[in-house]
Amino acid sequence: MKVCFLGGARYGRPLDSTSEKKFKALEALGDVFVIGFSHDGRPRRFSQHAYFYLLPTLPLPVLRYLEMLVIGPVLALWLIFRRGVRVLVAQSPYEGFAAALAKRLARVAGRRVALVVENHGDFEESLFMQRRILLPGLYRFLMGAVAGYALNNADLLRAVSFSTKRQLERWTSGKPIHQFMAWTDIEAFFQSRGSHDEGGIREILYAGMLTPLKGVHHLVNAFSCLARDFPQVRLTIVGREEYRGYAENLRRQVRQLGLEGRVQFVGQVPQAELAVWMSRAFVFVLPSLSEGLGRVVVEAMATGRPVIGSNVGGIPEMVQDGITGFLVPPGDEAALAEKLRWLLEHPVEAGEMGGRARTFAEHFFSTEAYVENYKQILKTARSLLGREEARYASPSI
C-alpha cells in the first residue's frame, strides 16, 4: 500500500545519515512519498529510499503553514491520482488539515484514501508558549477549526506519548489510536563513547531547538546559581536557532550573568555528532515548559547519561525520578539548580543513574519496533478502506 507523509520536517539532497536510515527502514512499508520542506528557499523533488516533494522553506512559521495548507492538498491529490497513494499520514493536526482536504476532494472524484493524523506535541498550547501572539482569541479559534477539521476527517490516529494520546482522546471519540515514539537513530547513541570528565571539565548539556517553549533561559539561570561553586563545570547548548530573537536574548542573559566562557552555543548538528556531545556530557537537561515526548531524553539515556527533565508531557514516561535522573517542576529554577548540584556532588551515584538510564533506553526504542508499528497502522488503514469500499459497492436494498 502506497503511503504519503505530510509534515514540517526539512530535508536536504542527499539525505543526512539519520534521515537515510529512517527511510531505508520505511521501505519495508512499500512505496513511500514525502511532502515536506527543503533546507533552503528552493522547491526540490528527488528520490532516495522514498519520493520527496519539498516546498521552499519560507522565513516565518506562519508562512510555512500557509504554504502547506495551500500547496499540500494539491500535491497530495496529484500523488493519489497519479501515483496511487492510498494512505495519507499527517505529522500534526495542522498538516492534517491539508491531508483532510485532499482526502475529501479525492472522495468527490471517486477515490477513497485513509487519513492518519499524528500528535507529536501539545498542538493546543505550544504556540502560545513560544511567543506573544496578537489577537490570541482569533488564533485559538482558527487553530481549533483547523485541528478539528483534520481530526474529524481522520480514520485513525497516532500519539508519541500518553500525554499526546490523552489530548487526542479529548478531541475525538472511538477512533483507533496507535502509540509509539518518533524516529531516532538510536544506534548512533548506543555506539557513541566519550569521557564525561575530559580535561577536568564537567559538561551540562542541553540539545533541542532554541525556543521559549524549551525553557533554556531557566537552565541558564539555574546554572548561574552553582557556577561559582563548580568552576570546572560548563554549560553547552546545542540546537537550531528557530527564533533568532530568543537566541539573542539567551546570549545577552549569559553576558549579564557573567557566564561568558562558561556557556557555549553550538548550532544544529547531525544525530551522529549529537551522540558524541551527549557521550561527553556529565548530565543532560531538558527544561521544557511543554513536551510531547522529548526524544532527546532517550537519546541521552542511550549514551549512559542521567537526565534532569521537566515533569511535563511525555518526559515522566522516560525519566524515573531518583532512578535514572530527576524530574523538576517546569520553570522551577531553584529545583533544577538543586538537582544539578546533587549530581555534581555525587558523581558515583550519577554514574549509576546513567547506567540504569542506558538499560531503560535499550528497551524503549528499536528500528524494528518503529517499522512494525507503522505496518500495524497500514494494516488498520487497509481494513478500514476495505470495509468502506465494500459498503459502498453493495447494492442498496
UniProtKB/TrEMBL annotation:
CDD domains named among the record's database cross-references: GT4_PimA-like
Q: In what residue span(s) does the Glycosyltransferase subfamily 4-like N-terminal domain sit?
A: 25-171
**Record bears the keyword Calcium:** no
* Molecular function per GO: D-inositol-3-phosphate glycosyltransferase activity
Which UniProt key words apply to this protein?
A: Glycosyltransferase, Transferase
**Start and end of every Glycosyl transferase family domain?**
202-358
What enzyme category does the UniProt record give? transferase
**Enzyme Commission no:** 2.4.1.250
Q: Which InterPro entries match?
A: Glyco_trans_1 (IPR001296), Glyco_trans_4-like_N (IPR028098), Glycosyltransferase_grp1 (IPR050194)
**Official protein name in the record:** D-inositol 3-phosphate glycosyltransferase
Give the encoding gene's name: mshA
